[in-house]
Amino acid sequence: MRSFGWLHFTDLHQGLEAQGWLWPGVREVLLADLEKLHARCGPWDLVLFSGDLTQRGSAAEFARLNQTLQQLWDHLRALGSTPALVAVPGNHDLIRPDPRRPESLVLGRWDTYPEVQVEFWRDASSPYRALVDQAFAPYSEWLKSHPFTGLQLQRGMLPGDCSAVLAKDGLKLGIVGLNSAFLQLGDGDYTGKLALDVRQLHAACGGDGPAWVKECDFALLMTHHPPNWLQAKARDELMGEIAPPGRFVAHIYGHMHEHASSVVAIGGAQGRRELQGSSLFGLEVYGGNVDRRHGYTAARITVDDKNEATLRLWPRVAKKHAAGHWRIVQDLDAFELGDDQGTRPEPLPPPRRRPRPRLRRRRSTLPT
Predict the structure, then answer these.
(1) Distance between terminal CA atoms of the chain?
(2) What is the pTM of this model?
(3) I need a surface site. Which of 40, 131, 191, 356 has the fewest CB within 10 A?
(4) Domain that holds residue 48
């Protein structure tokens, strides 16, 4: 039996004001739940963090983030897991530029300037790319120096675009992370206004995305935003060029602060699986009401002795007990779960690379 295990975290929002006094309590119930869950589905090889690690993208927030993550990593190591971190930036992991800057105004109307799109993707020195690089500069610096490495990252075209390969037990799991937040540079509703481009995939994967994926037995795609936050053209690019059916086991993302999972198969093609994560620290204020959401997901791909592969999830969510305190439990609102609080095994296509045949030792025919 061979397997890959990971934790999916998203939307921590390090630096959110109320987090200063609320996070210590959330941290304690999180660490306690990780200890219980580790016995069920650990150890974990990866932590996938799908953006909004910070609230305003400042260097000070990223420094504080390292302290928060260090507490988590120390706990995971004590449990027996030594995961590597793979992350993508979200729309809060940037320093918002002056909205009056010409480049900001033009990028804010991306779909009306096709000539700017051509320049943006073709010319790394364009003023529009320079604005994006500047906005994500603290994130890029954090990515270079944070101590939670363990895998070699291939950097891509935009800040945060990356790929990595986890090799274990003769199998390879590939992770591709793409920046879906580079157009969300200000306030407002960006639903249906964001972009992704296949050139991000190619650049993150050494020049040829499909070939890179084929070298892995399984692959995951990670962004911060769900597909419906992309413009129609970008959604077509995602479905047709970046993630056609069968290329990725799942598209993992966050941003919406609650769990969701779907598999959609159209016209006999392989199904596309989307895994939306719950916010690790989500807090919204509407009038006088406060909406808090805390959760995460554990997952595992398993390959049995017959080379048959399956995927399972263990979604977790914070609920208030009748006594008034918070605790993290299985998410029965969004998932059907079994006795071990995980989803039923979902069959996956077998590993792409054929296992090497074992060499038989030939008996000696020499006289003794």
Answers:
(1) 39
(2) 0.95
(3) 356
(4) 2-94+136-348
